[in-house]
Write a structure and sequence with these properties.
CATH architecture: 3-Layer(aba) Sandwich
Helix content: 40-55%
Number of domains: 1
Radius of gyration: 18 Å
Largest sheet: 2 strands, parallel
CATH topology: Rossmann fold
CATH class: Alpha Beta
Strand order of the largest sheet: 1-2
Number of helices: 8
Strand content: 5-15%
Order of helices and strands: EHHHHEEHHHEH
Number of strands: 4
Structural class: mainly alpha
């Protein structure tokens, strides 16, 4: 919604996809750490298999999520920084948005002027994930719980946010919140010297 209003947008998840393509250093490290069993026959990373390898607890209950993040996050952050610098050179008053689920978890929040948290209820998160992935609600519930376990609680994210968008109501209500936020961000961007 911010991009539709003229903000520039980059998505951390898309960067991670690019960095995990064959021939990339991140790809090589992920395969070295997690093995070739995470690859499709064409040599590309099978993301569900990688997620299973990273999130599956061992007999002590430990997962390998931190190991995966230690490989991927620094490279993603580096690409985001390059992008933000380039956007700022093109237009010093630009609103540049980095969409990422793990900004706080990666220790990367200080790199940004503002932190915006988008939130909704736990059940809405499950329902929306089930619809997007076209999977059963119970499967979605388990997958969302597994993913959320690797993230800070929403209450902590909200506490650290400069702005919060509550996405639990109608699309129109969310749109109105984003409209107000965009006006504030534009004012802040234009006041930068």
């Amino acid at each position: 919604m911010l991009a539709a209003r003229g903000a520039r947008l980059i998505q951390a998840d898309h960067l991670a996809h690019e960095l995990m393509q064959p021939g990339q250093a991140v790809y090589d490290e992920v395969v070295r750490h997690f093995g070739s069993s995470i690859l499709n026959p064409d040599g590309r990373v099978n993301r569900p298999k990688l997620a299973e390898a990273a999130f599956r607890p061992d007999r002590n209950g430990a997962t390998r999520v931190a190991e995966l993040n230690a490989i991927v996050h620094p490279a993603v952050i580096h690409r985001e920084d390059e992008w933000m610098e380039a956007e700022g050179r093109r237009n010093p008053h630009v609103i540049a948005v980095v969409e990422a689920a793990l900004i706080l978890e990666a220790g990367a929040a200080d790199r940004f002027d503002r932190l915006i948290v988008v939130t909704c209820s736990d059940e809405q998160r499950v329902q929306r994930f089930a619809e997007r992935m076209k999977i059963d609600l119970e499967v979605a519930r388990n997958e969302v719980a597994r993913r959320m376990a690797a993230q800070l609680p929403d209450a902590e994210k909200i506490n650290r946010a400069d702005y919060v968008i509550d996405n639990s109501d109608s699309l129109d209500a969310t749109e109105e919140q984003v409209r107000h936020l965009h006006v504030r961000l534009k004012q802040e961007a234009e006041s930068r010297s």
